[in-house]
Amino acid sequence: MLDRILLIDDSEPDLIYTRIVLERAKVVREIVHFESARDALARLDRPDCPGADLILLDINMPGMNGFDFLRAYETAARRPHTPSVVMLSSSADPTDRRSAESFGSVRGFVTKPLASGQAQGLLDLLRA
């Protein structure tokens, strides 16, 4: 079981649904969600921010999209603990998948909606 997942998605219905799936699958103790990638990045940059085991990140968001977040996230080497990222996106575009895989912190790509079996599979991704 993971201690904490950061869920970043601009869609409130997707946040609610994903939270329910993760809670029912019993894969995490705490879920912290953000509707803005900028807000999530600002939180991660705070020295008092508790660590996370995993970030679930949407791609298509206004302001700062998932790829913008990843570029900023990976260049901020000052973080003592850098959680792995799994892209959780409605995009089935193979270009998005290849782009996501080009980032060192990305451990997987899941197309929404997250299924219960996929929630369990997140644990396997982190163990690999």
TrEMBL record:
Keywords: Phosphoprotein. The modification 4-aspartylphosphate is found at D58. One of its GO terms (biological process) is phosphorelay signal transduction system. It comes from the Bacteria. Transmembrane segments: none annotated. Residues 4-127 form the Response regulatory domain. It holds the Pfam family Response_reg. PROSITE patterns: RESPONSE_REGULATORY. The keyword Phosphoprotein applies. The keyword Phosphoprotein applies. PANTHER family: RESPONSE REGULATOR RCP1, RESPONSE REGULATOR RCP1-RELATED. This is Response regulator.
